[in-house]
Write a structure and sequence with these properties.
Chain A is an alpha/beta fold. Chain A has helices at residues 40-47, 70-75, 91-101, 106-119, 135-147, 165-180, 192-198, 216-221, 238-247, 271-280, 295-303, and strands spanning 2-11, 14-24, 29-33, 55-60, 63-64, 76-79, 153-157, 184-189, 201-206, 209-215, 226-234, 252-256, 259-265, 284-291. Chain A starts with a strand and ends in a 6-residue tail after the last helix. Chain B has 369 residues and is mainly alpha-helical. A four-stranded mixed beta sheet of chain B has the order 2-1-3-4, with helices on both faces. In chain B, helix 7 (166-196) runs antiparallel to helix 13 (315-327). The chains are: A alpha/beta (309), B mainly alpha (369).
Chain lengths: 309, 369
C-alpha cells in the first residue's frame, strides 16, 4: 500500500534520513518510534509527499508519488506536530476552512463538521475561538482537521506533545477507535507506551536510520535475554554506579531521576552482587524491582541510550 | 484560493485593529500636519488701491489655497511686527512685498504665485492695449487649448522648479508610510502559515503553490489598496483637499505603489525566520524609507548628497514622486511612466526573489527537527 524504498534526505551537507525502508498495509497501525532529532518528521514529510527525497522513492499502491502525489493526497490525512489552526477562528470555522479546501461544500460540509466535532469531543465548544482552548483541545481539533475528508490513511506526528494526561488519554482513545474502525495509521512518537498501545508494527529510528522493526513481541525478543532491575536507594552516588559497571561488565547501567536502571543478561543473578556493592559504598537500597522488557529497553539495548535522552 | 480569502476575511473580522489603526493614523497625521481643513494658507493682505493690486487681491481671494484677510498697510505692518507667525502681503501697482519672519517654502511658493498673477495681468493689459479685448479672448482660448505650462517634465530630475503643497505632502507621505505597515502585517500571514503548518495542510489538500501565494498576496494587496482608497476618498471628498484635478491618477499610482510594497514585504519575510523578526525589520525599514523617500519632508529641501542618493532604495520615493507629479505638477500618467515602470519592475523582481527564497526556507523547516 504505502511503501518507502531506500529513502535518503540531505539538507545541505547534513544527511538527516538514511536508507529508510518502510511499509504500511491497509488497516495496519504502524508506529515510528525514536528520540527527538531521529529523523521521524522528515521521514513522514517524505511519506506524505511534502518533501522530495534526495534519493529513493515513496510508492502508493505501487505507483511512485514523487511525480504524482495527487492520488495519495486525496486519501491522506496528516496531523502535524504543530497546532496548524487559525487561533482567531472558532473550532467550527477552522473545520469549515479545512473542509472547504478539500472541496466539501454545503450540507456535506456541515454534516462532516458536526461528525468530526463529535468524534473529537468538541461539539459543545464549536463556536469558541481556538486561542481560548486548552492545549489538549487544540490538539484534538488539530486531529479533527485531518479527518474531515475521511482519509483512509492517517499520519500523526507526535500528536500528544505538551498536553495534560487527561487530554492525552482522550486523544489515544480517539486514535484507538479510528484504528478499530479500519483506519491505516502511521503514528510517530517518542512516547513508547503510546506506540505500544496503538500500533501492531513498530519501526525504531535513530540518527536518521531504521535500526529495528517488527511487531511489539518481535522487538521485545531482541532483549528477551535481558532483565532490567529498577533500583531505588538513599544516597546514590557516582562511585556506586562506577562500581556496578566495573563488577557487572555485562550490565547496562543508567540513572533516570533518582532511579538506577540496570539491564543485565537473564542468566545472571546480580541482586546479591548489587547489594554487596551498595554496602561497600554506603548506599542503602530501599527497593529493587526486576522488570520484564519494554520498548524502552529495546531502544536502550539497540542504541545504548534512553529514548528521551 | 476562495478558501484562503474567506479565512483571511474571518481573521480580519476578528482582528481589524491593524487596518483601522493604520487608516486612522494616516488621517490624523495627514490632517494635523497639513494644517486642517482645506489646508489653505491664511494671508493678511493690504493694497495701494490701484487697479493692478486690486485685481491681484481678487485673484488671491478666488484661490482655494488662500484665506485672505484685507487690512490697511498700517494695520498689516503692526500685526506682522506683533505676530511673527503671520504672513503678510503688500500689493502695489507694479510690485509686491511678502512680509514674513521666515524664508520658508510656503513664502517662496506664495511669491511665485503672486508673481505669476502680476505677469498674467500685465500680459492681459498689454494684449488689450495693443489689439483690444476681442484679441485677448482669442489669445486666452489659445492658451487654454495648448497651455505652455512651466513645469512640464519628461525626466525624473526634480532639480527643476520646486512646487510645494503642504497638504498633499502630509497626505501622501503618511498614507504611503502607514500603508507599508498594513500590507507588511498582512503578508506576514504567509510566514505564520508556514510556521504553524497550515501551509503544509493546504499543500496536502492539493492547493498549488501558485494558488497559495496568489491567495495570500492578492488579499494583502486589496487590504492595502482599500486603506489607500479610504484615505484618498476621505481627503478629496470629505475634507476637500485640492488634488489639482489628479484624483484618478492618484488612485492609479496608489495601485502600483501597493503592488511594490506587497512585493517588498514578501521579500523581507523571505529573509527572516519568524514574524517578530520580520516585524522589527519592517518597522525599521518603513521609517528609514519614509525619511529617504520624502514622506516626512520634500526631498527638494534635503542638502545631503548621500541621503539623496539613497532615495532610489526606498519604495516610498517612487510612490511619493509620482503622486506629487500628477497632482502638484499636473503631470499625466505617461509623464510619470518612469516611476510607474520602476514600481512594476521592482515588484516583479522582488516577488520572484521572495518566493524563491521562501520555498528554500520551507525545505529548511523540515531540516530543523
Amino acid at each position: 500500500m504505502l511503501q518507502a524504498v531506500d529513502l535518503h534526505k540531505k539538507f545541505k551537507t547534513k544527511e538527516v534520513v538514511r536508507q529508510v525502508n518502510m511499509q504500511l498495509e491497509a488497516g495496519e497501525s504502524v508506529g515510528l518510534l525514536g528520540p527527538n532529532g531521529a529523523g521521524k518528521s522528515t521521514t513522514i514529510s517524505m511519506l506524505s509527499s511534502l518533501v522530495m527525497p534526495t534519493s529513493g522513492e515513496v510508492l502508493w499502491n505501487n505507483v511512485s508519488i514523487n511525480k504524482n502525489p495527487e492520488a495519495l493526497r486525496k486519501t491522506l490525512g496528516v496531523v502535524p506536530q504543530e497546532i496548524a489552526l487559525y487561533p482567531e477562528l472558532s473550532a467550527k470555522e477552522n473545520l469549515h476552512f479545512f473542509g472547504r479546501i478539500y472541496g466539501l461544500k454545503g450540507q456535506l460540509l456541515a454534516k462532516r463538521t458536526e461528525e468530526t466535532l463529535q468524534k473529537i469531543g468538541l461539539s459543545d465548544r464549536k463556536n469558541d475561538i481556538v486561542k481560548t482552548f486548552s492545549g489538549g483541545m487544540k490538539r484534538r481539533l488539530n486531529i479533527g482537521a485531518a479527518l474531515l475528508h475521511k482519509p483512509s490513511i492517517l499520519i500523526m506526528d507526535e500528536p500528544t506533545v505538551g498536553i495534560d494526561p487527561q487530554s492525552r488519554a482522550y486523544i489515544l482513545d480517539t486514535v484507538k477507535q479510528l484504528v478499530e474502525e479500519g483506519m491505516t495509521l502511521l503514528y510517530t512518537s517518542h512516547y513508547m507506551e503510546e506506540v505500544e498501545l496503538l500500533c501492531d508494527k513498530i519501526y525504531i529510528m535513530d540518527q536518521g536510520e531504521i535500526i529495528a522493526y517488527g511487531t511489539k513481541e518481535q522487538l521485545k525478543l531482541l532483549v528477551s535475554d535481558n532483565q532490567t532491575i529498577e533500583l531505588k536507594a538513599h544516597l546514590l552516588n557516582p562511585q556506586f554506579e562506577e562500581a556496578l559497571k566495573k563488577q557487572l561488565p555485562a550490565a547496562n547501567v543508567r540513572k533516570e531521576d533518582e532511579v538506577l536502571l540496570i539491564s543485565v543478561p537473564k542468566n545472571e543473578e546480580p541482586l546479591a552482587t548489587i547489594f554487596a556493592i551498595a554496602a561497600e559504598n554506603t548506599v542503602t537500597i530501599t527497593s529493587a524491582i526486576v522488570k520484564i522488557p519494554s520498548l524502552e529497553d529495546v531502544f536502550l539495548h539497540l542504541t545504548g541510550r534512553a529514548l528521551r535522552d | 484560493m476562495k478558501g484562503i480569502w474567506l479565512a483571511r476575511l474571518q481573521n480580519l473580522k476578528r482582528k481589524p485593529l491593524v487596518l483601522i489603526s493604520m487608516t486612522v493614523m494616516t488621517v490624523i497625521f495627514a490632517y494635523i500636519l497639513s494644517g486642517g481643513v482645506g489646508s489653505s494658507l491664511t494671508l493678511l493682505v493690504a493694497t495701494d488701491n490701484t487697479t493692478m493690486s486690486n485685481e491681484v487681491l481678487e485673484r488671491l481671494q478666488n484661490e482655494d489655497d488662500y484665506t485672505v484677510t484685507v487690512l490697511t498697510e498700517n494695520e498689516l505692518q503692526k500685526i506682522i511686527k506683533e505676530k511673527r507667525d503671520k504672513i503678510g502681503l503688500l500689493l502695489h501697482e507694479k510690485t509686491y512685498s511678502v512680509l514674513s519672519d521666515t524664508e520658508s517654502d510656503v513664502v517662496r511658493m506664495l511669491s511665485l504665485a503672486v508673481e505669476t498673477m502680476y505677469n498674467d495681468l500685465a500680459f492681459h493689459d498689454q494684449v488689450v492695449a495693443v489689439a483690444g479685448e476681442s484679441k485677448w479672448e482669442e489669445v486666452e482660448k489659445g492658451i487654454l487649448e495648448e497651455p505652455s505650462f512651466l513645469l512640464k517634465k519628461d525626466s525624473m530630475d526634480e532639480s527643476q522648479v520646486f512646487r510645494y503643497d503642504g497638504a498633499l505632502q502630509s497626505l501622501f507621505g503618511f498614507m504611503l508610510y502607514f500603508v507599508f505597515y498594513t500590507i507588511s502585517i498582512n503578508v506576514q500571514f504567509i510566514l505564520e502559515d508556514k510556521r504553524t503548518g497550515i501551509w503544509n495542510r493546504l499543500k496536502l489538500a492539493s492547493i498549488s503553490r501558485f494558488q497559495l501565494y496568489f491567495g495570500h498576496l492578492s488579499f494583502s494587496y486589496l487590504i492595502g489598496l482599500v486603506q489607500m482608497l479610504l484615505v484618498i476618498f476621505l481627503f478629496r471628498f470629505i475634507i476637500g483637499t485640492n488634488m489639482y484635478g489628479g484624483f484618478w491618477k492618484v488612485v492609479v499610482i496608489s495601485s502600483f505603489y501597493v503592488l511594490l510594497v506587497m512585493a517588498f514585504s514578501l521579500f523581507i519575510i523571505s529573509l527572516v525566520k519568524t514574524v517578530s523578526q520580520s516585524s522589527v525589520i519592517i518597522s525599521l525599514l518603513a521609517v528609514a524609507f519614509a525619511m529617504i523617500g520624502g514622506a516626512y519632508w520634500p526631498l527638494e529641501i534635503v542638502q545631503s548628497d548621500g541621503l539623496l542618493a539613497m532615495k532610489w532604495l526606498s519604495p516610498i520615493y517612487y510612490g511619493m514622486e509620482a503622486l506629487k507629479r500628477v497632482t502638484i505638477y499636473g503631470e499625466t500618467l505617461v509623464g510619470v511612466g518612469t516611476y510607474i515602470s520602476m514600481m512594476i519592475l521592482l515588484a516583479a523582481l522582488l516577488i520572484v526573489i521572495g518566493i524563491t527564497l521562501l520555498e528554500k526556507r520551507t525545505a529548511r523547516y523540515h531540516s530543523s527537527e
